[in-house]
Amino acid sequence: MLTLLTALLPYAFLPTAYGACINASSNPKAVYTMTNDVPNSILAFAVSTNLSLEIPVSVATGGNGGQSIAKGVPNYPDTLASGHSVEVFDRYLFNVNAGSNSVSMFEIAITDPTQLRLLGAFPAPGDFPVSLAVAHSIVCVGFAGARTGVSCAPWDSTGIGSFDLIRPTASNDTRQVTPPDVSFDIACLTDILFTGDGSALVAVATGSNISTDSTLTVWPLDYTTGQLALEESGRASLPGIRVGFSGASLPGTSQLFLTDGLTGAFVVDTASLYHGDDDDDDDDDDVLLSHTVVPGQIASCWAQVHEETGLGFIADSNLNRFVQVDVSTGEIRRTFNSTNGNDGYLDVKIVGDTLFALGVREQPRAKFISVFDLAGDVGDVENVPIPGGDVLGMGLAVFV
């Protein structure tokens, strides 16, 4: 087992390695979510050539799920209040176990990607892990609880090595508790992402009391060793962004397309925060490139980018629609209103011309794997109930 973040040769850390493993195929073969229950399980849905989903296979993660709190009560429907809690990289799947402070890793069977072999549930040093960023030989996890921050570990085909020291983020608030209070009275880490050029890891956090700005914290990545620096290279406050939440890296760049739960979405360029600049707030104006205010939005918290068109898709947990945004300008292009009966959407993934989303309903409480065709006009394809993941379920990942 590896114990140092020096696992592979430099070629393994080319920029295209970050955010997702580049695969020659863009045809989805399986979709994964997790029950986030006690005990926690991964639900693996095979995807047919016509994008219909088969009955899922359930595999235990070896850990426990968890549920954040808001105003003193269990938070629903986004029980982890985060993005990227389940991730696929190459032929491996990773997930957080928020209730047992661990990260699970599985090997995916190439011939049948619903068959997962658990390599282990590996202990992590923080409280309430909610988000993952995975690249060649390095996995990082973001914690939202009392011991908040980011920790990283090496991984290979045998499993995950020892996680290193927790890196504090700009969101470190000594008032935070476990499970985390996500009513946004207290700043909270919500997502971590590698930049699309592979140069850095970025942590996203909300503001506090809906009166302070959201923040980004950035750590540079060393191409030659695969090590993530323990010391941050920069941090930035985001003027006018109070509930910075999650989103996607723009391929080959230092830019991120992220959501703001109060207003819509925004684009940032993190280059000035890890190219040797000082880490005061002087560069904040250079970081925030655009801010898209979405009319009628309620809780815009998840987003992905359709690489072919350059359009970002914003999901709202309280609205049965997706808002399309030109990420180069921040301009809203159109709004797609679904007719599948859902109340809203959580995690989102786009593979080729297919959008997968974690659909939610309030009465009765239920969650779904929702499938949409992005070729031409957006269209409903499937809306499949998630057995066992109807209340606490979180996370979405796709194997191609």
Automatic annotation (TrEMBL):
This is SMP-30/Gluconolactonase/LRE-like region domain-containing protein. Keywords: Signal. It comes from Penicilliopsis zonata CBS 506.65. Residues 1-19 form the signal peptide. InterPro entries: WD40/YVTN_repeat-like_dom_sf. The keyword Signal applies.
